[in-house]
């Protein structure tokens, strides 16, 4: 069987060396055709050598072992036999391994303590021929179904409780049966959600998400089992709910949260948002608030990765409308922060923290916070010359902003996309701060009769230099830009107010109606009155 080709994929050099020696020690049976240090290199070697068997680690930088096997499955090539090596002792990835029809799943420490374990496993698989025996495949599929059904049953019971008060008693009884004294004793509640910015797939890819949630449930069960009786439930959109009754010292909440975050980061390569709630003397009337918390759209927008007091539950899912005066104020402050190229990092951080504190204290609506940042971005983009790249950037920003789960993610995403917006201008310093402040003033008050010479003098620029910097910043001349702003504002007023056309002309800075009428028709092809009539038909 010397022609039985084997590919080894392992990122750690010492471990790869040991496994290589194990395989080469049985050269009468196996031919090691290649070694790879990550999944991408392993995929390339597979396509090149077409090995009969792959021995692979899971956790590797870049493309991990399971991702590599998934790519091989999608390649259309014949599937090799697969042996998966891992350091994880609770088979966190077993569901995915089964899904990919892995032939064996070995713990690295077991292989090191028994040097013949890996060769013995390889020999047994090699003697079965390339294809899996049908009875073994049926057994693996059955195991997959049992594991999957267990998670789905827990999920279904919990969702029934959320939807109907009639199912509450049954759910509480099931927890009591699991030795979690929710009716009268002390217990803890955990709410987790995968940070979508750390995912390597779309949250809407249900099959992919289900596999990773299975792994997440196992990580949580392993950690909570050391604390006491527990139940862990995978919800939709990458969210997890867990409840446990701590045994002994119950003051280790911060340590537990740290362990959970580290475990998700190390094993799943994903960052979680987490909150823990301590409940004393039974659930009582808190069940209604718990249901609101679990189903809330933004439980982590202001608090995350900490222990929250029982009294804070109701506040966490109750948000307030942002008063218009505060909205205008923070739009102005954030614009200035973005447009000031010399603003220090410390000053920017101070403004972010000030906004965060006020928003958190007032419990401002997360959707309105997102809309405020979007408004800032779009207002500033008015200064930019529009292009296909800008349209794509704006679409990407809207999508990314929609996915943000925390206040800080919204802020950082906006600043990141603004830097990308600057790069589209070809020069990070392309936006002159004085010009930007002038444009912002024009944008907010079009009634003033702006003159090129007057504006240039007000910031100590010569008229030619002012004109040059203005066009570099906006992509248009001063006259073109001001005319466009006024015409766009006139369109809005014609459609949304009953003001007469001469009143609109005066409100947007035209000195006489005839001039307004002539310019509006030149820009739109219609007189203001005709535009209002046509658009209202």
Give descriptors for this structure.
alpha/beta, 24 helices, 5-stranded parallel β-sheet, Rossmann fold, DNA-binding response regulator, 57% helix, Homeodomain-like_sf, 11% strand, 5-stranded mixed β-sheet, globular, DNA-binding transcription factor activity, 537 residues, Alpha-Beta Plaits, DNA-binding, 4 domains, Tscrpt_reg_AraC-type_HTH
Question: What can be said about this structure in brief?
Answer:
This is DNA-binding response regulator. The chain is of the alpha/beta class and 537 residues long. It is built from 24 helices and 10 strands.
Please tell me about this protein's structure.
- The protein has helices at 13-24, 39-49, 65-74, 94-99, 108-113, 117-126, 134-163, 168-177, 206-225, 253-268, 286-295, 313-316, 324-339, 345-362, 366-381, 388-403, 407-424, 433-444, 452-458, 463-474, 478-496, 501-507, 513-524, 528-536; strands spanning 4-9, 30-36, 53-57, 81-86, 104-107, 187-194, 230-234, 239-244, 272-279, 306-308.
- It is of the alpha/beta class and 537 residues long.
- The chain has 4 domains: 4-133, 3-Layer(aba) Sandwich (Rossmann fold); 144-316, Reverse transcriptase/Diguanylate cyclase domain (Alpha-Beta Plaits, 2-Layer Sandwich), CATH 3.30.70.270; 324-426; 429-536, Arc Repressor Mutant, subunit A, CATH 1.10.10.60.
- The strands form 2 sheets. Strands 2-1-3-4-5 form a 5-stranded parallel β-sheet, with helices on both faces.
- Strand 9 (272-279), helix 11 (286-295) and strand 10 form a beta-alpha-beta unit.
- The longest helix is centred in the N-terminal third of the chain and has 30 residues, at 134-163.
- It is globular, with a radius of gyration of 31 Å.
- The mean pLDDT is 82.
- Residues 5-123 form the Response regulatory domain.
- Residues 436-534 form the HTH araC/xylS-type domain.
